[in-house]
Design a protein that fits this description.
CATH class: Alpha Beta
CATH superfamily: Ribosomal protein L22/L17
Number of strands: 3
CATH topology: Ribosomal Protein L22, Chain A
Strand order of the largest sheet: 1-3-2
Distance between the termini: 48 Å
Order of helices and strands: EHHHEE
Shape: elongated
C-alpha cells in the first residue's frame, strides 16, 4: 500500500474572490462563466463589458475583486493574471406564491447563487533561440 503525501503548502500564485447570494439562477450564470474560463483577466473583463446579460456586471465586479486581492494582498503582477477557475453553486431559494384559478396557489421560485472566481498568475518563460 502506497501512502500519498499530503501537500499542505498553499499555492500563493492563485487568489480567490467569492460573491455570495447573487440574485440569479446558477444555470444562467454558468452560461457566462463558460465563456471566460481560462482567459486572461483583462480580456474576460472586456468580454463581460459587451455582454448583454444583466448578471455580467456582477461577474465583472467579482473578477475585479479577485484581481485587486491578487495585487494588494499577494503582490502578483496583474498583467499576467488569468482566470484559473470560475464556478457557481446553489444558494438559497425564496419561495413566493401567486393566486391561481379555483382557489389554488402557484409557486414562484426566486433562486440565489454563490459565485467563486479564482485567478492565477502565469509564469513568464524566456525562450531565446540561438
Amino acid at each position: 500500500m502506497v501512502k500519498k503525501s499530503i501537500n499542505t503548502k498553499k499555492d500563493l500564485s492563485s487568489v480567490k474572490a467569492i460573491y455570495k447570494n447573487l440574485r440569479s439562477s446558477p444555470r444562467k450564470i454558468n452560461e457566462i462563466l463558460r465563456s471566460i474560463r481560462g482567459k486572461k483577466a483583462d480580456i474576460a473583463l472586456r468580454n463581460l463589458q459587451f455582454s448583454e446579460k444583466r448578471i455580467s456586471k456582477e461577474i465583472s465586479k467579482t473578477i475585479k475583486s479577485a484581481v485587486s486581492n491578487a495585487e494588494n494582498n499577494n503582490q502578483l503582477d496583474i498583467d499576467n493574471l488569468f482566470i484559473k477557475e470560475a464556478y457557481v453553486g446553489k444558494g438559497i431559494v425564496m419561495k413566493r406564491y401567486r393566486p391561481r384559478a379555483r382557489g389554488r396557489a402557484g409557486e414562484i421560485k426566486k433562486p440565489f447563487a454563490n459565485l467563486t472566481i479564482i485567478v492565477s498568475e502565469k509564469k513568464q518563460t524566456n525562450n531565446k533561440e540561438v
